[in-house]
Structure formats: C-alpha cells, structure tokens
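Why predict the complex rather than its parts? Because the way molecules touch one another can change local conformation, and only a joint prediction can capture that. The input here totals 959 residues.
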Amino acid sequence: MVTRRMKTEWLARGLLTVLIAVAIATPLAARWIQVGSTNGATLELHARMPENGGWSLDVIHAVVGQPVHLRLTSDDVIHSFAVGQTNWPALDVKPGEVVETSLLFDKPGRYTFYCTRWCGPNHWRMRGIIEVQSPSGASGVASLPTSEPPLYQKLGLDIDAAPQLSPLAEQSLNELKGLPSAERGAALHVELPAELRQHDWLRTHTPAEAFSFLRNNSAYNELLDTQLWDVVAFAWRNATADAAIARGAQLYTRDCVACHGETGRGDGPAGRDLPGLQAMMPGITMPDAKRGPADLTDLGRMAGLSDAQLQGKLLRGGMGTGMPEFGSLYTDDQQWAVIAFVRGFVMNLTTK
Amino acid sequence: MHLELTKVPWLKRLLVSRWPLFLLRAATLAGFVLTVVAGLAGSPVGSHNFAIIFVWVAWWTFLKLIAIPLGGRAWCSVCPIPVMGEWMQQGALVEPGGRGLGLGRPWPKRLRNIWLPTGVFAVIGLFSAVILAQPRVTGWVLLGLIALAVVLGLVFERRAFCRYVCPIGGFIGLYSRVAPVEVRVRDRAVCATHQEKTCVTGNAQGYGCPWQAVPLALTQNTNCGLCMECLRSCPRDNIAVNVRSFGADLAQRAGRSLDQAYFGFMMLGSVLIYSTVMLGAWGNLKTAAYNVGTPAWFIYSAVLLAFTLGVLPGLFLLAVCAGRTLAGSKVPLKRTFIAQSHAIIPLGLMAWIAFTISFAFAKSSYVWPVLSDPFGWGWNLFGTAQWPWTPHLSSVTLLLQVLALLGGLVWTSIWVRRIAQEELPERSAARQSLPIMLYCLLFTIGMLWLLVG
Amino acid sequence: MTNLKSQISNFRFQIVLVVLTIAVLIVPVPLTWAAPQERHFRIEASRYQYMPSIIHVNLGDKVTIDLTSNDVVHGLYVDDYALNITADPGQTSRLTFVADKPGTFALRCSAPCGPVHPFMVGKLNIGPNWLLWRAIGAASVAAFAGLWVFKRGR
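Output of the joint prediction:
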C-alpha cells in the first residue's frame, strides 16, 4: 500500500532528481550543441599567455576558398588574433568573452597567426600555423606565400655586419646639431640626383653612402655638411608615401614599442627582461648589457645601415638580442612601412 | 523587544511545514551543483565564471550583509553542503519514517568544540587568494567540502560536520548570538511535565534536534540551525520562533568558551589581513598571497597565523590584565578573558560587514554578465552578457563602511561594560573596560585606515 | 524631584556625548584650500599594482595621468569620476580631468590582467582625507562614550 508519506517522498525525490539533472545536464548539453552543431566546422581557439600554454591549437588546417570559422576566447589576459602575410585587421580576444570570426584564404601556403596585444615577456612566441591547401589537395609553397626572396638575400648582404660609415660621413655626423630635417632639405630647393630618387638605390644604400654620394657630387659643393644631411633626409621622405609612414607608426606601436620603447631608444619595459637573452648572458643584467633591444635613435649607427639591412634584421630577427622574426608576419608593404617609420627616429621626416 | 512569529497562524504553518525548507534546500543544492560544474568546466577567468562571482560576491555578500545579521544561522537551514548526508542519515527527503543509512557514531568528545573549524578557517585563509581567483580551485574546494560532509554524515551522528567542522558554520554560529531571530521554549514549566523530551529524541512528527542542541534548554543561538524540527516534534506546541532585539545572547553566560573566543580573534585578525592584502594598494602582498609554495607565501602564511592566533589574542589578554588591575578585580583571569572576548563579537561582525561592503558594490556588476554567460562560453541567456563592469555606489560605500565600523565599536563598548558588570560593581567595571576599549579603538582605527584611508 | 533632575542631567550627558560624536563626523571645518594647480603623474602598471600606488592632489587641481604598463594590458578606472583608460606595455595612455570632488577614490584596474586582477587597486586622494580623520575622531569619542552613555545597573 502506498501511503501518503511515500507519495510525498517520491514526489520530493523526483523533483530533486530533476533539479540536479538540469543543473548538470544543461551546461553539458548546451556545450555539446554549441560545439557539435557546426559539424566541427567551427574551431574553438583559446588564447593563453605562452607561460600558460599559448594558443590551444598549434596548427589550423584550411582549404583555399573554404571559410574557417573560429570561436576565440582568452583564458587569462587580453590577447588578439592576427594572421601574418595578410592585411586583415587584428581581432581583440578578451578574457572570459567569446568572439567569432571567419577566415577565407585565396592562396595556399603556410600562414602564421599571432597575438598583437602584448601579453607578457614571451608574447612574441605566441604564434601558430595555418596550413592552407589548394582545393586540388596540393599544399602549395611550403613557406611564405610570397615566393620572392627578400632584398638582402638577393643582394647577399650581411645583416649582422657592423654599420659602415666613411670617416667623412662619421665626422660630419659628429658635428651635427639635432637631427637631419626633411623639411629643411626641401626648403633648399635642390634637385635630387637621379639615384636619390630611386627606391632601389635608396633601399640598398646607407644614408651615410647617400651623404658621401652627394658630397662627392660637385653640383652640391656650396652646401654645408649639415645641409647635405637635410637633403638626405628629404630624399628619404620624398620616396615614402604619407600613408606608409602612418601605417608604419601603427605597426611600430602595436608590435615594437614594448621592447624598443616609444622613443625608440630600446628602453621599453618588455626589453628589460627578455627571456633567452638572459640565458645567453648569465651574470649580466639589462640594461647594462650591450645586447638587447637596439637603440633606433642612434644616428651614428642607423646612418651606417641600409634599409635592406634593416629589412633583413626585421625579417630574420635573432642577432643575439631576442628580436623576434617578422618574416612570417609582415607583408612587403608592412615591412617597408615600419622601416620608413623607424627612419623617423634619426631623421625628422615631418613635412607641412 | 520580543515578538513571537509563531503566533501568526500562516507563518507558523509555513515554518512547520516541511515543503518550503525542502524546496529551498533542493534549489540551493542544484545551485551548488551548477556552481561546481561552472568552476570545474567553465572559463578559467574568475570574473566571468558563475562559480567565483556567485560564491564570493553574491552569496558571500548575502550571507554577511543579510543572512547573518538578520537571521543568524538561517543560512545553515538551507545550506546544500550537509543536505545529502542528512537525507541519507534520515532515509527520507521530506517526512520522517524512512530507513536511514549511516553509522551514527557519536562525535569524539575532544572535538566537541570549534577548535577544528578555527583551524579549517585558518587553512582556507592561507589559500584564499588562489581560491578567490581560480574557478577550478573554488570548484574543487566546494566539492571537497560536500564530499567531507557526506562522509561525516554517514559515519557520525546528525549534523556533526556543521557543528564541529564547518568553518563557515563556526563564524555564523558565533555571530548568530547577535541576530534578532531565535527559537526558544515558550514556557519551561510545560517542559518540566513532559517526560519523553521528544525535541531531543524525536518522534513520528519530527526528528530529534539534528544540531544536538537541547531545545528545551536552549538559551543561545550559537548551535541552533533554525531547522524547526523541534517545532514539529513538540507535542505541547511549546516552542516558538521569536524576533528579539539585536545582541540578546551576549548576556548568556553559559556557552562562553575559549574555542569560541579564539574563533572570534581568528575573524578579527582575518578581516584585518584580508583588508590589507586584498583591498590595499600593495601588489607584492597580493602576489605573495597568491603564489602558493613560494617563500613569500610561507612568510604571508606565518604572519597570518601568528597574527590571528597569537598577536591579537595576546594583546587582548594584555588589555584584560591591565583592566583587571585597574579595577582591582578578583575574578579569575581566564573567566574574564573568555567573557570579554565574547563582548567583542559585535566588533568583529561589523568589521566583516564593512569589509564586505567595500568589495561587494565594486564587484556586484559582474553578476549581470555572469547570469547570461555563467561559463564564459559566449552565451547570452538574458541579454546582459555584454554589460560592462562598473563599480556601483562608490561614493556611498565609504560612508557606509565608516558607519558600520563606528556602530560596531559603540555596540561592543556597551557589551564590554555590561559583561564586566556581571561580576564587578559599576565603577570597577568601567575601569576594567578602559584598556579593552582602547584595544577595540586601535582595531577600529586600523580597519578605518585600511578601508577608508 | 531630585530623581527627575538627576535623570535629566544623566540624559543631558548622554545627549552631549552623542552629539559630540556626530559633530566630529559632520561639521564642516573652515579651511583655506590651496590654489588649484596642474599636476602630472606617470603611473606604471604591473601585475598587480600601480607605481606610484597612491597619489595626492588638492581639490580643484587639473590632473594628468600618463598610464603605461610593464607586462600585460592594464587599465585604470577612477571611482566616482567614472573615468577609464587602458594601456598596453610600452605605450602611454593619457587621462586628464579636474579633481572637483573631494575625498579618497579607488583606482581600479579595468583590463583583465590575470587571476588577481579584481584586487588590483590604487588610491587617489583629493584634498586631505577628511572622512578618515573624522571617522578616527568619532571613533575615539565613541569608544569611550559608549562606556559612559549606556551604563546600566544589573
């Protein structure tokens, strides 16, 4: 015989079971629906500081023409998601929040995805690979989608060589007061020689070589050394579009400022404690060490390096300084934009 | 002030009926399960995880600002941690009559005090920074507590976990002495004529007191869990639920003991240390408290334990000694120390209220997004997932904290004097109270400086 | 009659003490404020504190805060003024405002910067911290006033 008490009891037990089951099953079911409904076409990617594991996926596979859906969230601090060798804007990935995006590739190759909000001393290691195959199944070029070797490789330049300055150039630099100014150079209303109007020439010669070239040209004999440096600055400015410098400024702020500093002196907070660097030089602490983020405001040094050499350093990194490689991240345009901006630390490139 | 709630018929029916309490307990248990799932499976970011926000912001604020000051051990009556153990012991969810499981062993005599809860509270305090910051850790701690409660429920009798192990119960019990709600016998004479004392032994209508209190002789709230079993089992309808003035139990001399006093100092010391570490501007203290296992953490732990268990009680002992000397008291030192330690219960309660106010309103705005997205998986159940974090009412909270601390100080001064006058004439009592009030003043100034300075 | 008189005088004593405590809390103190000036602070944020963590200004000052970070993205939110900026490592974000509300305000980190982020806090003192001094004054009176005011026989 079922008593009233037993009926109450079973009702209570049923209610309790339902409540507990709902508490457990709802999140799990919702998760299963969320992850399963897109038939695995949506990838969940967790951003974490490299100390906590970095990106949760090391490799993403994609096919040209087929969108890759990503659900991104961060497990610790603010990160962002950007794909190298493209001009796609970076997407902020915030802790505890989920953001979705789709990637569509039109060229096969191996792309690098990386973080662009500085997230700790190992931020520059926070990278992954996207292997994009063509629809036929061929994986295309195994390295960068850009198949051209960079300028410094074509020219066989040694990017680790010490800056080259002729004694004349060096002495004239020592006598300079302030930075060479493109505006003053423009005001001189001098005709630039053909070489100094060519991208190729400017990119493959150092500013010191440009100065020497001008000095040895009798057409500029009346000009003082300081004025010739202004002309050099003007030549560099002349060869660069405004938009490129602006783009370079954005990229520098986003990717370089943490180590090289807002002033370019190499005194950024992240540069004080570069992992790997310390291991290479035990017993020496930054900033006493002579290695570390380069001082981009050192005119004597920068004048002796060509843009192609700077590009090489940017692309390859290393040099025993902890500099990451940007070869897999920046398109050609982005590389030259950053270099153009960086030139602005040693030459005043603003013009009205 | 004395107002009997059980005189109101529908209130009485509500309190005696078993369904309201069962429904509340089922709800809190389901909430607890959800919390553990969120903690273990949800986003590791604390501010976007239901477990962290609902345990350490929502529930904690509710407990400290409403449940304890107004209801004493009211939370204990709906707490999900012991319920599974109790249901298994009783063999029934609602009405008595089932066959229970469990060994029902008596709790060891040596541990029939709150020294163990004091220790558990201290240990949890050592890991508090990690527990508050990491959802996984909160999840495991809650799971551990409920597992422990179930095991103890199956081995020992009744609510041994709640009374002799639970650290939260330790301070809820301590502070319930000042709460305005109580369960008391109406007329002692009626109990004298009742042979069976079913409030203790139980009958078909109600279990014997699960808290192992003796309802017919109950004079303090400390161990009464407001479960209403005695109301159900009393055949003479002689037990009432009353609303009374705040602080009434502090006048009860029985039930004052050294372990209770020490828990009081643990609470006073903890609120000072948490205010320093969590609310202060010194980041190295926070990292020391968070990085468990590092030398800095060991130093933090040593300081916390020494301060709460050594320095604070030691200074109070000095104050009591000085007071006794000033008053020329012949009352034994230990008795005065224990009695006066209970006088500072209001000080501790108001200090914790002030501390809770200082972070509750700053963090309360996390509640809305977490309701819509409890796991940090990108859901938006109620449309509030993107509500930004903004501190609420910041201009008012500082004043509220000051008022709470000052209120606690005045309240304690009343009781320091009153309790002193239990054994001493008026003048001597006043003199004894001077150094003790100096101690309380220094504590209050410390809290003021940390919270408002 | 004497009973009543002594009752009233007791009562008066209690009233005086209570009024004194409240007065310490509320009565405005006449003071000449320092002339408002411009102030500039550079605050470095790291996990989990600001350097400097406490800044003092006078009422009416024009305050500029340059926030930069040393490790991850941090933020700065000024309680009550409801101002909010974030800074990435190496980059400087600037906040300018007039300190027209007196008191002590928390500076809270508004960009999740790690597990201990909710506790990352600094302080902005505008003018002397009157609330603190008044509260300490009131507490000093209250601690001992309580003993006297509420004495009761058994």
